[in-house]
# Entry
Amino acid sequence: MSHSRGRLYVISGPSGTGKGTICKEILKDIGNEFSVSMTTREPREGELHGREYFFVSHEEFTENISKNNFLEYATVFDNYYGTPKDIVLKKLDKGRNVILDIDVQGGLQVREAMPEAVLIFLLPPSLAELRRRLENRGTETPEKIEKRLSKAVDEIKFIGEYDYMVINNDLETAVDNVRSIMKAEASRIPEKVLPIIRQYEQEQKGE
Ligand code: ADP
Ligand code: 5GP
# Structure
């Protein structure tokens, strides 16, 4: 079969749950690509422009909003974050699966814009463990950690809007579960099956 369009995966869940860690593993698999978001937040130590995020000014971000350049965008923890639309669409057209690590507000916007997207919600084993992970990561001030923890339960309330949930207790098991979801989704019969039927008809006719 000629290559089909890639699938769009959204991974959401409270900050500190392990989205970035799990995405890193999933991205080792051939055919998966990360969507680098644009943000107005400051880079953390070790983060690179164009790798973790495109770090831009407030002006540059709002200019992109007005040009309708985002598949979705939202204000998260006082900063703008958004998914560049063209880059994602090009990757999907090339048959790559595109992984978005975005918050729940963004996930819901993607569901509206591209209903065929697969939405995975990542859960921490408990709030106490979430706190430990945020503290151990050491990237946030205590005040910012409290903010992220208080948003966690609000985000979890949206889990019903997602297609799958994965609990990130043991990392290897969680990665395995995400991979299983992706494997199953690769075999899902798409809503629009006509192109597939046509392809076999053409082959039968020897075209
Ligand atoms: P997020 O991207 O959701 O904010 P991260 O991937 O940065 O979360 O993970 C937060 C912290 O938790 C990191 O220090 C990471 O190494 C750690 N972590 C991730 N998954 C697990 C796990 N299953 N068990 C223990 N620690 C984990
Ligand atoms: P962090 O600042 O820890 O990198 O990310 C904070 C939150 O913003 C995380 O929940 C992350 O998933 C989310 N996020 C990252 N990029 C985007 C994006 O492009 N759009 C939206 N809506 N959220 C994003």
User: Anything to note?
Assistant: The chain is about 45% helix and 20% strand.
